C-alpha cells in the first residue's frame, strides 16, 4: 500500500546515490561536489570502524551500536540499514534542514535505504552507479585493499545482488570515467531543477 510521503524535498532536491561497494561512489561524489560546490552531502552515522584516513564527522559519524539503536528507537533516522554486517543510518534532521534551506543534498546509501526512502520522500531522484563490468568491480575492490579476505568476498557477493537492484532506480550511470560520470549526474540534477521538481 502506498504511504503518504513523510518528507517533501522542496525547495531543495534529494539525490539518492547507490551502487555496489568499490564502484567509486566516493570519488564520483567528490568530483560532483567539485563541479558543483553548493551540493550538500549527508554524513551518515555508522557502527563500522573508521578506515585509515577517514575523519569522524566528515566521512561518517562513527558511533557504537548502543547509541545507534537509541537513535533508531527515537526515530532520528530518515532511514537505516544493516550493510555488510554494520549499521548505517541517515540523520533525518540534517537532510530536512538542508532541503528546507533550498539546498540539494546527496545521500550515498545502499539499496535497502533507497527502497525505504522511495515511497516516503516525494520528489527524490534515484541514481545508481554501475561498474563497467563485474571483473572491473572486483579489481577495484582488490586495489582498494581496505578489506580482509572475508569482507572482500562478502562485498563482491553483495555487489552482484545490488547491481540487479539498479533496475529500480530512475537513472543508471556507468562509472567508466569519474569526471564523465559526475557530469552525467550533474546533468540529471540540472534537468530536474529546470523542470522545477
Ligand atoms: P562503506 O562501509 O564502504 O563506507 O559503505 C558500505 C555501504 O553502506 C555502501 O553501499 C554505502 O552506500 C552504504 N551506506 C553508507 N551510509 C549509509 C546510510 O546512511 N544508510 C544506508 N542505508 N546505507 C549507507
From TrEMBL:
Record flagged with keyword ATP-binding: yes
Question: Domain of life here?
Answer: Bacteria
What CDD domains does the database record attribute to this sequence?
GMPK
Top EC class per UniProt? transferase
Q: Which Pfam families match?
A: Guanylate_kin
Q: What is its EC number?
A: 2.7.4.8
- Guanylate kinase-like domain location, by residue? 12-190
> Which PROSITE patterns does this chain map to?
GUANYLATE_KINASE_1, GUANYLATE_KINASE_2
Q: Which reaction does it catalyse?
A: GMP + ATP = GDP + ADP
Q: Which SUPFAM superfamilies match?
A: P-loop containing nucleoside triphosphate hydrolases
The UniProt GO MF terms for this protein read: ATP binding; GMP kinase activity
Gene Ontology CC terms, in alphabetical order: cytosol
Q: Where does ATP bind?
A: 19-26
Q: Which UniProt keywords apply?
A: ATP-binding, Cytoplasm, Kinase, Nucleotide-binding, Transferase
Q: Where in the cell is it found?
A: Cytoplasm
Cited PANTHER family: GUANYLATE KINASE, GUANYLATE KINASE-RELATED
- What is the role of the protein in this entry? Essential for recycling GMP and indirectly, cGMP.
Q: Which family is this protein grouped under?
A: Belongs to the guanylate kinase family.
Query: Which HAMAP family does the record associate with it?
Result: Guanylate_kinase
Please give the name of this protein. Answer: Guanylate kinase
* Source organism of this protein record: Candidatus Amunia macphersoniae
Amino acid at each position: 500500500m502506498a504511504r503518504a510521503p513523510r518528507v517533501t524535498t522542496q525547495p531543495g532536491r534529494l539525490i539518492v546515490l547507490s551502487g555496489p561497494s568499490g564502484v567509486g561512489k566516493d570519488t564520483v561524489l567528490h568530483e560532483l561536489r567539485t563541479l558543483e560546490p553548493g551540493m550538500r552531502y549527508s554524513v551518515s552515522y555508522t557502527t563500522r570502524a573508521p578506515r585509515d584516513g577517514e575523519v569522524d564527522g566528515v566521512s561518517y559519524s562513527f558511533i557504537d551500536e548502543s547509541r545507534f539503536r537509541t537513535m533508531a528507537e527515537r526515530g532520528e533516522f530518515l532511514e537505516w540499514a544493516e550493510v555488510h554486517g554494520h549499521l548505517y543510518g541517515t540523520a533525518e534532521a540534517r537532510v530536512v534542514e538542508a532541503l528546507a534551506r533550498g539546498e540539494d543534498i546527496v545521500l550515498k546509501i545502499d539499496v535497502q535505504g533507497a527502497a525505504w526512502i522511495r515511497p516516503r520522500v516525494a520528489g527524490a531522484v534515484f541514481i545508481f552507479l554501475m561498474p563497467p563490468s563485474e571483473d572491473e568491480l572486483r579489481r577495484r575492490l582488490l586495489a582498494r585493499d581496505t578489506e580482509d579476505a572475508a569482507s572482500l568476498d562478502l562485498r563482491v557477493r553483495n555487489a552482484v545482488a545490488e547491481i540487479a537492484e539498479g533496475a529500480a532506480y530512475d537513472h543508471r550511470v556507468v562509472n567508466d570515467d569519474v569526471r564523465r560520470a559526475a557530469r552525467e549526474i550533474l546533468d540529471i540534477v540540472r534537468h530536474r531543477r529546470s523542470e522545477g521538481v
